[in-house]
Amino acid sequence: MMAWYTANAVVVQATMTTLLLALSIQLPLRVGVFSFAGVGCFGIGGYTAAILYTKFDVDTWPAVALGTLLAGGLCYLLGLIIHKLSGLYLGMATIAFSLIVAVAATNGGSLTGGASGIFGALGGITNLHVLLLLALVVAGLAISEYGRFGRMIDTVREDPELAAALGINVGRYRKLTFLASGLIGGLAGAVTTLLRSTITPAEVNFHMVVVALTVIIIGGSSSWLGALIGAIVITWLPTVLSFVADWESIIYGFLVALAAIFLPGGVLGLAKDLIHRWRARRRPTPPAPPASEAEKIPGGEPSSPATERSLASTQGGTS
Amino acid sequence: MSRSQNDSADPRMIFEADDVAVHFGGVKAVDGLTFGLPEGKIIGILGPNGSGKSTLVGAITRHVPLTRGTLKFLGKDYAGDEPHLVPHRGIARTFQTVRLLEERNVLENVLLGTDSLTAGGRAARRLGQERAEQAMARTGCDHLAKVRPDELSYGNRRRVEIARAIAMEPKLLLLDEPTAGMGRAEKEEISTLMLSLRAEGLTQLIVEHDVQMMVDTCDSLLAMNFGKLIVEGEPREVVRNPAVQEAYLGKQAVKHA
Q1: How far does chain B reach from its first CA to its final CA, in angstroms?
Q2: Where does the record place the ABC transporter domain (chain B) (predicted)?
Q3: Residue A54 belongs to what domain range?
């Protein structure tokens, strides 16, 4: 185990940082916000941390924290401006945001190192640190996927008008999604940069959007678990099959096309579907109303016919 | 929850609309409606397709912007509310086409009615669960709790949507064609449910095409045409009114009748 880890530490690290970036794109998609601002936030977080660390002698963790917060704050401001856009228009606006970050990085002079970026920003971050941060982010996202919170987010995505009719403040959800996405993207950028000691404008371009989307589409967009599956596939494929590295773009494109056509919910969606079907087969269909149901309902009369009972049972009951 | 039934001659108005208009460009979908909903009654809105019924429901829930007019609920003007605030005031609705989360089971869909209206925490979760189970029992979909909506019949999908609205424990329930596509027996079940909710004092506004059901269930009817209120009153009288028959059947048919 230890030997395996030592041999593969770099790939494990890449899996975790890829996952963080993918999560910053997956969260807005799950709330129904078609935003790729997470990539721009990756750049903001990464550059901020690197500049603070190399030019202002700020320690590793304060640099990471400031990069994360700045990215979150800017992404929230972006959300305030554009959260009412939808679909492709929102997608375009957020990609433009990410490209603006890249342009600013390229033209930032000595502060950002221009087209060659910043070097020598090797902070004191270990894989264990990354794992802990990742666990924290995943825990937060997991909470947002289960129970009432998960249901409300699903409704905001699937049917915003219905969500409002159920009393859910759709606008607030959308705005807070920009904040959370910015924080995760910023964290991903800051951590990745101080791990690898370098960041360049080339890392904040459209290629990153494609990588994040590939991870999400292959794994599944409905849960962090899908992003984890996608991140593992994307980072390990080139190491398992060496020829993949040479044909990366073509093979990833092919995988995305296959997943989009045959697995609209990704690998995770396929797994969930199989579990659901397996459960449905074990359940007698259609389920008949159990005869003893009336006893459970306050005020119910066990002797009355099924429909009458079910419609009028709580009349006069303690509601 | 204690809803007192009010049988006095002039019951309190729970909801009042004054000169409400919704214009889409040149189209006057709703054009100057003034009416009130007496507490604890079932009021039906009658009118041919395109007469502005659903737009009116959308205006009441604040999904549709008003061109002019005021809306009062429990004496408070709420015309400036954003849509998501309306359920918190105690107004719940169902939709003309059933809207459910297909990936979530029936229980979770009904729980959605309580999710944003109850605070977080264990006690609230238990309360929400109780409310949802009760609502499912009343609408007759409690045995379907673990089934996904895409496996349900049309009538049962309607029931789940009504259960979700009931779970919100509203003071005013808006039902937009709740029995569309249902058979006679199913319609009667919905009718029975509405009457049992009325017995608890729940005010209901129903949009429906089935005139017979409206006459049997409603305390009074509002007849609309071209965005305006044409007749208002006791169901049988409204249905017999020549202006209503003309709006529904056309001038010629009324003449030959």
Answers
A1: 49
A2: 15-251
A3: 11-205
Asked if A319 reaches chain B (Cβ–Cβ under 8 Å), the answer is yes
Residue B251, domain member (yes or no) = yes
Looking at the fold, whether B252 and B177 belong to one and the same domain comes out as yes
Tally the domains of chain B.
2
Q: Which of A158, A163, A319 sits opposite B1 (nearest CB)?
A: A319
Chain A CB contacts of B126 below 8 Å = none
Residue B73 lies inside a defined structural domain of this protein: yes
Assigned domain for B3 exists? no
pLDDT tens, residue by residue, A160-212 = 999 999 999 999 999 999 999 999 999 999 999 999 999 999 888 888 888 89
Q: What is the pLDDT of residues A229-272, one digit of tens each?
A: 999 988 888 777 777 667 777 887 888 888 888 888 888 888 88
Residue B192 lies in a domain: yes
Whether residue A270 lies within 8 A of chain B, CB to CB, comes out as no
Chain A residues within an 8 Å CB radius of B115: 148, 151-152, 166, 168
Count structural domains, chain A: 1
As a whole number of angstroms, the distance between CA B137 and CA B166 comes to 11
Q: Which of A168, A296, A314 sits opposite B116 (nearest CB)?
A: A168
- Looking at the fold, whether B46 and B150 belong to one and the same domain comes out as no
Domain extent, residue B33, equals 13-90+172-256
